[in-house]
Amino acid sequence: KETGDILVYTVATEETNGFDRYLDSASEFNIQPKILGFGHEWRGGEVKTHPGGGWKLKLLKTALEPFEGDDNKLVLFTDAYDVIFLGKLDEIVRRFHKTGARILFGAEPYCWPDAGLETKYPEVKEGKRFLNSGMFIGYVPEVLKLLSRKEIDDQDDDQLFCTEAYLDEKFREDAQIKLDHTNELFQNLNGVAGEIEIISKPTKEGDIDKYYVKNVLYQTEPIVIHGNGASKHTLNYLGNYVPNAWNSVEGCRQCKKGLINLEGLPSKDVPVVLIALFIEHNTPFLEEFLNKIHNLQYPKERIHLFIHNAMKFHTDHVNNFTEKHAKEYVTLKQITPDDAIPEWTARDLSLDHCLTKKCDIYFSVDSIAHIDNPYTLKLLIEQNRTVIAPLLTRPGKAWSNFWGALSKDGFYARSNDYMDIVHSEKRGLWNVPFISNAYIINSTLLKSRDRTVINYTKPKVDADMTFCSNLRKIDVFMYVSNRVDFGHLINPDNFDTTRTEPDMYQIFDNAQDWEDRYIHVDYPENFNPEKKDLQPCPDVYWFPIVSERFCNSLINMMENFGKWSSGTNNDERLVGGYEAVPTRDIHMNQVGWEPHWLHFLQKYVRPLQEKVFIGYYHDPPKSLMNFVVRENYRYRPDEQPSLRPHHDSSTYTINIALNRRNVDYEGGGCKFIRYNCSVVDTKQGWLLIHPGRLTHFHEGLQVTNGTRYIMISFVDP
Ligand SMILES: O=C(O)CCC(=O)C(=O)O
Ligand SMILES: [Fe+2]
What we know:
Keywords: Dioxygenase, Glycoprotein, Iron, Metal-binding, Oxidoreductase, Signal. Residues 625-717 form the Fe2OG dioxygenase domain. This is Fe2OG dioxygenase domain-containing protein. InterPro entries: Collagen_mod_GT25 (IPR050757), GT_PLOD (IPR057589), IPNS-like_FE2OG_OXY (IPR044861), Oxoglu/Fe-dep_dioxygenase_dom (IPR005123), Pro_4_hyd_alph (IPR006620). This protein is of the alpha+beta class. The protein folds into 3 domains: 2-184, Spore Coat Polysaccharide Biosynthesis Protein SpsA, Chain A; 267-489, Alpha-Beta Complex (Spore Coat Polysaccharide Biosynthesis Protein SpsA, Chain A), CATH 3.90.550; 502-715, Jelly Rolls (Sandwich). The protein is built from 17 helices and 40 strands. The strands form 10 sheets. An 8-stranded mixed sheet has the order 16-15-14-17-26-19-27-24, sandwiched between helices. Strands 29, 30, 31, 32, 34, 35, 38 and 40 form an 8-stranded antiparallel sheet that branches. A hairpin with a 5-residue loop joins strand 22 (405-406) and strand 23 (412-413). The protein starts with 5 loop residues before the first strand and ends with a strand. 2-oxoglutaric acid (AKG) is lined by residues 583, 629, 643, 648, 655, 670, 698, 700, 710, 712. Residues 583, 629, 643, 648, 655, 670, 698, 700, 710, 712 line the site of 2-oxoglutaric acid (AKG).
């Protein structure tokens, strides 16, 4: 059989993620390459592939010399770190024989490293014209002839060496050297990403779809691919699917490779983790961010904490957290706004701090990254990759913490599968060129290179971009996983910390977080068909709607604003300037919160209204009068602690109790005169909803002690 007579060689001095992938792809097809140069200092120049691969060719020459007289022996030589096999050796050999060459090189669109040689190249009718030395196959005698054609130095450029041989017409003809112009066998990826597609089709056996690389320009399916030059990320992208990294039956096959299991390990044996938290910007819902970190299911006696807080606004949040919880962790290192340490430095410091603490795992989390899944840390460690991020997205948006592709200048570009990944229509493990906001790093990487290689610091460049660019340079793969849901990203864009209670204003930008904090935990129960609606008086309904936190925040917003109305009939805030039944109040628009409130009415109140007052639809609900009433008990007769009987100018009115009867105040309540029915036992965060006109003539009852706050809206006046 032909394949017994082929030698497969590569050169690699050390293990890298790319080398592991090369070996994995080889073993997928039972190819057993011989590795030359392993464990040696690289002697082929600074860039590991080229220029300066003379040493590679010398190693190959030495390896082939024992086979010199073996006229029928073939040799397949490829780079290692940036090559993937997509087919079996006998198929590779078959395609080689079809070309009639004695040596076949892969081709590429660039005349490199010496563009001046372009005119010396034979013209081609179709395909790429220039030689690339990263992949070739040939008969041993001819390959040895090629390698002996001239003296080679370690530092020489291997591609130039092979190019000169090819451009020597007599030599080319004698040795029958050809280029694989149209990618029948070899595909160099640099500059041709637009010709390459991932296709899926059933295997010969039938019942499973697998992925293949297709060159759609030449309609070929090359079976050895090479991420030469700037095309490493194209190769990484393809490597997410081929060879058999994905298929229609098993989904993400590469996800299941190399896993470790922490389940059942005693705490003392689980990896030591440094969790590094970065608060570099004012961020909504920071308390929840910290709590989610604290809720991670991982032994705290194996966790060191590092917190860089650059924002004064968050000092109390961080201090409250550390005062409460720091003791539970092995150590805590805190950098405060007063330390005035810039982000870049803090991030670099945290890497060193991890090593100081003899960490096994570094886990970096930015303040916008909400790790909702408490198993995230454990799952990421078990995935056992050098660098891996949990996929985090802005809910309902295309925004995420990874880039699927890179533009030429190293910025964001969208990959074909980006939306499928962001929306988790495809779940798996994705090798991508940029991750941020939350990721773990195996400390073996941090130990293997110092801060001159792995760091965040480059003047005027974003810290994450610098970091990822550094990792790309040393061939470290960055994975993002969406195997399960891990969490989401906060949108900090419109966070106005000059407001009192700024998170209350986040109902639009961070809707889910807003709901989690400010909507009553029992709100969904209002829609449970098994439950009977509470009706304390005829056509007055009673529902839990907002949290205690909401109530306190709204009171705080109003008290901080402080300009309570006088409670007289003259009210310059109203169009007519006259209020027949005045209260001491502050309107929502006075604190810039009316749009938020109207949205709240539409999203949370309207469904309740539609449920109890059947047949009335008014979407969105309109309301001009939205205000918080403060009723102080005073002995002075001119302070009105009650409200005389009246109708509201509304189709329906909502009335939310913001504080606690018999704790914060006594008395108070609302009496519906027509039914001789009062609601006095109001509950904080609960809403009363009743018709405004005709039937529900009502009065506010006397507050007999303390201060009562209620939130009122006259809906659809
Ligand atoms: O005090 C109450 O609960 C009733 C308030 C009221 O009816 C109003 O503000 O229009
Ligand atoms: Fe009223």
